[in-house]
């Protein structure tokens, strides 16, 4: 088959054509997804029947019966698949669907698959709340009919709570899919859908045992990658049933599929290594299932994705969808089998952290006892690579980009990597003082450098703007985000200040801190929050990129000065508090070298005080310097324009005064005094006109 990309002309590059569904290929295209769905259900049913009570016995848990076990597995398969269809359908509408209006979503056509999938996702999630509560507790589902049983069983396990979160997300997406028309809002829904995909995964097998921090981070990439790939493939198969997509659409589907395949494969390998815990793959059912899943997808999807001509056929998305459904079924079977990591002896540190921190804390330890933080390492590498590619593209066009901005961006991400993957990262979960240092660095130092890089300005200059009748690309997407109401709300100074300073009080001075420190994913989310809000705060003050509503320098200075006392007060509160913050968590860890938890908290308060004030003082100095330099540049520009005769401000000012003189001359302002002349040639009127002429300036530098 000839290469469609090469054969396409500019006029037909993204023009859909009708595809007749006749012959063997048409039957294969229509039947493949249904065959894949049937095989997926059969795999789950047969596996659950064969396992019986064995998995429950290995965990010393009561067997809830075949009905409860089967319901849990089939509903889990339904939820996983429809969650992927929902989120992937949203991603396809955002990035892969051509439309006349590039910032408006046709929710009737583009989100049809999303509404259907979200409805089933919601039903499955709601049913899984009681079913998984009974299954995890070893009770038959009929036990739920006992008064008070549902509430008790739901609280006894993490998974029912995760399904409640999923149900809420599914409701939000379902309602929004009927109402939303904004591209940015649909992008936001896609992000919310990703959270729904992750919720039931992060509280199960990847949360247990040694090195579960690696497994949790890998799952944060692998699970959304597989789900979005599945949903986008379903959207592509649905589109092929109507007409042949344009070349640009096919190319984008292929890029997303390749990205999803690679991300899911790498993430699954890391998760498999964590769950096997050193056990050879062929000696554990978990290893065999991982291998079968990876090899199946690689054997079928690999050749289709690696050859453009094969991917651009009507049967390709249908076959891919069938394979992905079977892969999802294998994943569900793995959740029914306890992996070897469950049976590795662990202590309190490995239970909560996934690793041990037996070496006493010293300055040398903070540099040498590093542990890779996969989440922030990948984010940092992606940020550096994308920025570098944009700079290279800009300079190839002959455009200039400041080396200082590039250095600031690179140093910002380098500080993030060093902070999270050096000894500071692993020890931040063991010591409150180190934890406070990590968050202050990610909230103050990293964002302070990143905003000086001006990434939005760079990407807008480096990306290509397309014609209005062309397929929207990164340039149009970035413009849509920067002009959105969501960004205006996000950059509202009052909101930013409240979140920037309020986060410390709401997180550390409430029970939330003790709860969040127990789970790796919650700690990662907390760290990501501090990095994001720090970026927005400093972007408003000294950022290179112009915010939606730029603040005057006096407003920026006021924003910084308003934040400073709150940071100082927070540090004092932590230092003087008689209550141990997250005391239960740190007592569970029971790390001998920490000694007094009260002293560790006192040091943490000092770190918060000093590390919070010093960067803000530096920002104040930099802001005042920027203010002075801007005024100096403006004065020089005005003088230069005046010397060239380009500045007519003083002429406009004189003209304004002349108009005022004419208006006052003709106005009946002196009718109240009949003894005085009010005619246009009166002495009084001439005197007032002379007074106004005396005030007229002849040089703009003399203007008040």
From TrEMBL:
Compartment annotation: Cell membrane
Membrane topology: Multi-pass membrane protein
Pfam family, one: Caa3_CtaG
TM helices/strands, residue ranges: 34-53, 73-96, 112-131, 161-180, 187-208, 214-235, 255-274, 286-306, 318-337, 374-394, 406-428, 440-460, 494-513, 525-546, 558-586, 606-628
Region (Disordered): 659-704
Keywords: Cell membrane, Membrane, Transmembrane, Transmembrane helix
Listed Basic and acidic residues bias regions: 684-704
InterPro entries: Caa3_assmbl_CtaG-rel (IPR019108)
Main subcellular location of this protein, as a coarse class: membrane
Gene Ontology CC annotations of this record: plasma membrane
Protein name: Cytochrome c oxidase assembly protein
